[in-house]
Design brief:
The chain has seven helices and 19 strands. It is α+β, with helices and mostly antiparallel strands. It has two domains: 126 residues, Chorismate lyase-like (Chorismate lyase, 3-Layer(aba) Sandwich); 197 residues, Nitrilase/N-carbamoyl-D-aminoacid amidohydrolase (4-Layer Sandwich), CATH 3.60.110. The strands form three sheets. Strands 7, 8, 9, 10, 11, 12 and 19 form a seven-stranded mixed sheet that branches. Helix 2 packs across helix 3. It is elongated. It starts with 8 loop residues before the first helix and ends in a 17-residue tail after the last helix.
């Protein structure tokens, strides 16, 4: 869609994505010419990258040196001169823009796709009842890419684990001696162990390796409850470049604010959406809550009812580029970048 537009790339991207950022990664000047490399970002996601070779009139060069961080379209408006653009597609996601006039340029643009995933986060009204399985199966008919249930739901003590007829993309749990989360992928049942035992879970919990990635057109990390608070788990997931983190949990009613903070922190660390779902237990200790960190708005939303949440996955800026730090800070690109932390090692 972006590649087929005959408008200025800057103008069209701003119309489609008002919250996008124009970021100059590199710029150099020599006599009447300049070179620049730019990105358009929406949160951590790359919408477009471009390399431009520019030939400038003296007035245009003066304006660009005075305001080196502005898009070419804005520069053309400032100098109030006509510039003719022609567009030539070179591949499915690339094109070349030729400009002639006060600014002559050859701009090579590359566009990146964002894919939308819908996640249905389910909060049962009552858990641990004889109706759990029928409610679970009914909810599995939801028209969403992924279905996320709270920790240990719906299979509990005395209920046999059976996924006959359950569609792909369902993340659910059981609670027996060893609590676990499961995912249905390609008609198979994948067991995802809880990494971080809490309290009496240590009695039954053996040491687990982190294999918490499922693939459904994107790398989806799945961890259970207390794992969200474990920085070692977050670090391991960042090395796997996950696109989305899902967390079935039991969140204490008196501790919601801290879990909101941890969802935000993990989202920043991973530069990915985080969705946590919790339900009230039989003893009334845990809360009904869906917590969603959106890396595009950098905000956390909290809901107390079941919710379908749309998230985006796509190419991300996972490493800080090898440019002077001032270019990033001036463009309000602060990170963190998970790729920058990959070479750390413990004692």
């Amino acid at each position: 869609m972006l590649k087929d537009s005959q408008l200025s790339t800057t103008l069209y991207i701003k119309r489609l994505f008002p919250n996008s950022k124009f970021v100059i990664l590199k710029q150099s000047f020599s006599d009447s010419s300049a070179k620049r490399r730019i990105l358009f970002l929406m949160g951590p996601y790359i919408i477009c990258s471009a390399d431009a070779d520019l030939k400038l009139t003296p007035d245009a060069m003066r304006w660009l040196k005075e305001k080196p961080y502005i898009p070419l379209g804005n520069l053309i408006s400032m100098i109030n001169k006509k510039v003719k653009r022609t567009f030539h597609s070179t591949s499915e996601n690339e094109r070349i823009v030729n400009m002639k006039g006060a600014i002559s340029a050859i701009v090579k643009e590359k566009f990146y796709k964002l894919r939308k995933l819908s996640v249905a986060a389910f909060i049962p009204k009552n858990s641990g009842t004889s109706k759990d399985i029928s409610i679970f199966r009914r909810h599995c008919r939801k028209d969403a890419d992924l279905l996320l249930f709270p920790e240990s739901y719906p299979f509990h003590k005395g209920v046999d684990l059976s996924i006959n007829g359950i569609r792909d993309g369902v993340i659910f749990g059981e609670y027996r001696k060893r609590p676990a989360t499961f995912a249905t992928i390609n008609g198979r049942l994948i067991r995802i162990p809880k990494i971080t035992p809490f309290a009496n879970e240590k009695i039954h919990k053996s040491k687990a390796r982190i294999r918490n990635i499922i693939y459904m057109g994107a790398n989806i990390g799945v961890i259970t409850c207390y794992d969200l608070l474990n920085p070692a788990v977050s670090y391991a997931l960042s090395r796997r470049k996950i696109d989305l983190l899902l967390v079935p949990a039991y969140i204490p009613k008196s501790d919601i604010s801290r879990w909101i903070n941890f969802a935000r922190i993990r989202g920043y660390e991973l530069q990915a959406p985080v969705i946590v779902v919790s339900a009230t237990d039989r003893k009334g200790i845990s809360a009904n809550a869906v917590i969603f960190f959106d890396p595009i708005t950098e905000k956390v939303n909290v809901y107390n009812k079941s919710r379908i949440i749309d998230v985006f996955v796509g190419e991300r800026m996972l490493q800080s580029p090898k440019i002077h730090w001032s270019w990033l800070l001036r463009n309000k690109v602060y990170g963190p970048f998970p790729g920058d932390f990959q070479n750390l090692s413990g004692d």
